[in-house]
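Sample entry follows:

_____
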Amino acid sequence: MRTLTVWCVAAVSVLASSAWAKPKPERERSPDVLRVGGASAPVRPNASAPTVDDVGDVDSFGRNVQYLGVTQTANVELATDCTPDPNNPPGPNDRCIVLAAAPGTTTVDEEELATMNLPAKATHSLICFAVTPFITFEFNNTTGVPQPSAVWNLRPTIRIENEVLNDPALIDPTTGAPFAGAITVALGTYSENRSLAVDERATRTTTQSRACIAGIISKNALTQTYGLSDSLASQFFKKPISLHFGASGLARLIDFGNYFYGIRLYGD
């Protein structure tokens, strides 16, 4: 088994149902994109206060940044053999996934790689992020014929738990089912889909950071995307919030891979 030494540092998006599906543009699938042309925020009593047209996000306008914490996930390894190496043992929460035989597709869906618990009123209307994935993998075509689609597409997933979402009468419009206490989102970062010639091998090692636009979750998203009332959206941020970090995605025609990420949260 090939083992990599992990060095330290240190997201509702749904994976395509078919590994061969053409990826949608990031604008369509990311929870962190501002909705253009959505409903405006209520008019404020102060006529000089900025509007959505002026600043895009009136709820956080002019508020100070509140740093909420930082964490790093356990490591996710993809390997042909997951027998632990006694000379380089995995961490207590690290994961190893046995790769499907080429040219099969390996599905990754790992939960509880890290957790953060925010107290009530930790932030006013927004949870923002800076996320840095650490990625190493190697494409390798050992099938004896050209392959049109070698894939690496792993991304952070974040389950946001809040007691406001426990009400069974509240339906998540993105799933058609009750929230059951949580919203899960995914944050697209680095992905690659390419062809491979016979016996072609290509190694990738990349560290890329992504910062907040609309946020992991916000008052605007709760009302405009998830259908909560303005009152419930305000209550959401007055309650404790628990965030559970995982990783999901697909890999095809690789002979090893390594993935983890660091994430810092901040609000208003």
